[in-house]
Amino acid sequence: MTQNATPAIRPAGPERSYSRREWLIDFLAIGMGGLAVYYYRPDGFPAVIIFVGAYTLAHSLLGVDWQSLRVFSQALLILLTPMLHLIMLTMAPVGTSVQGLVATLLLPGIAQAYWLWELWPATGAPSHPLALMCAAWLALLVIWISAKAMVGGRPAVPAT
Known about the structure:
By secondary structure, the chain is mostly helical. The protein has helices at about 20-40, 45-60, 65-90, 100-105, 110-125, 130-150. It has 2 domains: about 20-60, no CATH class; about 65-155. Helix 3 packs antiparallel against helix 6 (about 130-150).
């Protein structure tokens, strides 16, 4: 048996140099790990665990399948938006401002940001269930927009 003279994936040798994108991703991953340790301020071994976890999570974004992420987040947005809007209308705190209720009724996308803005300072932490749902929806929207930008906005190609 002879081996393939030109394998599809060549092993990385000492002559391999990193691209700017790989350097940038490593720099951002180290920065995210440092930021996580700075924010949580753990002592000893938990600091290492938090740093390695944040670095690994940030570095894993290098191989993300952006098309699948876009489709998945779009499907979640389509399913969760009407349900969250209904929950927001039923959970809106009693005695809130008229503009908050109007925003909730007429502008569902802007209402998530409004309730997050209103409830976070009032409770001191984003622990109110409505604020958590709004933050999750907004994070999902950001993921969808980011994935759409990475794919270039082109629709999925159907398999033939």
